[in-house]
Structures are given as structure tokens and as C-alpha cells.
Amino acid sequence: MKITEIPPRDFDLAMTLNSGQVFHWERIRNGFLGTIGDIPTYVKQRGEVLRARVAAASSRYSEKHAQVTIEHYFALDHRLPEICASFPDDQIMNAAREFCRGLRIIRQPKWECLATFICSSMKQVVHIRQISKALRERFGIALKADLPEDRSSGADSCLVHTFPSAERLAKSSEKELRKCALGYRAAHLLATARLVDSGEADLDAWQVLSDAELHHQLCELPGVGAKIANCVMLFAYERLRAFPIDVWIERVLRHHYFPRARKSNMSRLREFSEGYFGEHGGYAQQYLFHYARAIWRKSPV
DNA sequence: TCCCAGGTGTCGC
DNA sequence: GCGACACATGGG
Q: Which positions ≥6 away from A222 have C-beta within 8 Å?
């Protein structure tokens, strides 16, 4: 196990992990336990310091590797002040920018992100977390993770589960997958897992495609439409312009940007969003999403 | 009991 | 090309 300490600027770990872009991190002892790829990781932020315990894959896995892993996954190299400054200057965007200070779009493994978002359609965030957990526990690999020392229990460890590979899920069945509460999404996940496992869909090779080509390829996969394709582009391919429109973002757009349009169809909303929110539209979208979800119940944003 | 959720696929016009 | 509808599941 390697312990690394990083003093990140402009980063809020809890804000980032609770914003609905990733679903498997669990809060334990004021920190978060999860995996980065297949590496068990415990990470905690105190003040200006990010402290991570990264399970070493081998003895050659150095503290430097651990640090690079953390910095890459949490995208600590993104120039957040410049990104936020590129957002449009309007009332709701300014409020979201203020509310979501330190929120970063992280770099998720492609298959894990794709599979999780196939499970996300017509599901609340809490349910997506349940599905992600069930898939990991049923099909993933259990690994030991070290927890920080605790006054009552001292140093100890617990198990975390990797996200199952496409190969593993391709070998399962729709019936088995449905046991993870996937419902009708089980067939989509299985079909896409088989395409990825066979190599017919080569997620890594798609890295070099243009935004439009990548979007097209993703939409060819079963269970993937425009919205989920944009989520995968944003959260796994680092296409920071991709702008997923879900029910929350649609609500924000209609309420704040098209307040008097009785009917503004989706293609019009897409066209507007792709232009108005600029080169980091995906970041702007995530800030609006998290802000709207957090405060909508209190009073309509 | 009813409504809703980080939507997609299909069908009819 | 657009609108309507079905599709599973669980929390509030």
C-alpha cells in the first residue's frame, strides 16, 4: 500500500464524487473508499491536502505511481479557474459556478463508465449506485483495501470490488444481470458487453475519433442514445464540450433559457446548448446539473 | 397509490 | 423527421 499526499488547488473531493458523474465511491471515516480502475483506493481531503492510500499492484508500484494515478483520475491538471471563467455570464450559471466550487470532471475508465451509464436510464442517482454496487459484488473481483487508522478500531482493511470487465459480463446472461435490479437495461448491457468483448466495438481505438465520429459510434451500441453517448464522451473520453441533456438539464434550459417557449423541441435545445455554453460546455452542464438537483426541491431554480 | 428518475427503441404518421 | 408509447425498479 502506498500513501501519497497532494496539495491540490481548486479541488473539492466530496463535491466531485457526489455530483452524479461516478457512482461507486462510498463515504467511510470522512473519506471515500473505491477503486481507480482495478486499484483499491481510499482518499480523504482535509483542508488543502488530499491524502490517498493506494493499494500497490506490485512491489514495483511506487509512491510516484500512486501520485500520478490520483492526479490523473481526479483530473488535477485541469485548469479549473480558466474553465470556470469560460462559462457564460448569466444568473443561473453564476450561481452554479459558486455553488460547485472545486468540482472537477474526472477521468473514468471507458468500459466502466459506458456500462454504468447504460444502467442509468430512467433511474435516480441512488438507484444507479445500487446497481453499480450489485454488479461489482456479483461479477467483479474482490480486493483488499487498507483503511486509515481509527481510534476505536485501529488500522484495518476491508474488501472492495472491481467493476466487472466486458469479458466477464459478456459471459453472463440476461437473467443473471436482472438479479442486479437492471430491469429492461439488462439486455442492453449484455449486448454491448458482447460487442466490446468481441472487439467489434474497440473503445480504446475510438479515442482518436472526432467528437462527431465518436458520438456516432457510441450511439450504435445497444442502450446508448444521444444523452448517454454524451455522458461517456464527457466522463471517459475527456470531451469537455459534450453536453448531456437529461431531465434535470432540460428543466434548467426550459426554465431559464426558454421561459416563454410553450414548446421548444429537443433539437433546438441541443443546438442552443452546443453553442451557448462554449468550449467547456460539459463542465458547465455538470455544474448546472449538480446545482439544480441540490436546490430544486427548496425552490424552483 | 401515485409520481418520478442522468432515456432508448420502436412504431405510426 | 417528429411524437407517442412501452419498458423495470425502488424511493419518496
A: A187, A188, A191, A192, A195
Quote the mean pLDDT of chain A: 94
Q: What is the model's pLDDT at position A298? A: 58
Whether pLDDT at A284 is above 60: yes
Residues A191/A215, Cβ–Cβ less than 8 Å: no
Q: How far apart are CA A172 and CA A292, in angstroms?
A: 38
Query: How far apart are the two ends of chain A, measured CA to CA in Å?
Result: 45
CB-contacted nucleotides of strand B (7 Å) = 4-9
Q: CA A200 – C1' C12 distance (Å)? A: 42
Q: What percent of chain A has pLDDT over 70?
A: 96
The closest nt to A268, taking CA to C1', is C2
* Ordered DSSP codes for A160-193: EEPPPPHHHHHTS-HHHHHTTT-TTHHHHHHHHH
CA pair distance A44, A27, nearest whole angstrom: 10
Question: Strand C footprint at Cβ < 7 Å?
Answer: A 122-124, 126-127, 130, 178, 181-184, 263, 265-267
Asked if residue A248 keeps its beta carbon closer than 7 A to nucleic acid strand B, the reply is: yes
**What does the pLDDT read at residue A19?**
98
Question: Which residues, in sequence order, are bridge partners of residue A34?
Answer: A41
Put simply, whether the predicted model's pTM sits higher than 0.70 gets the answer yes
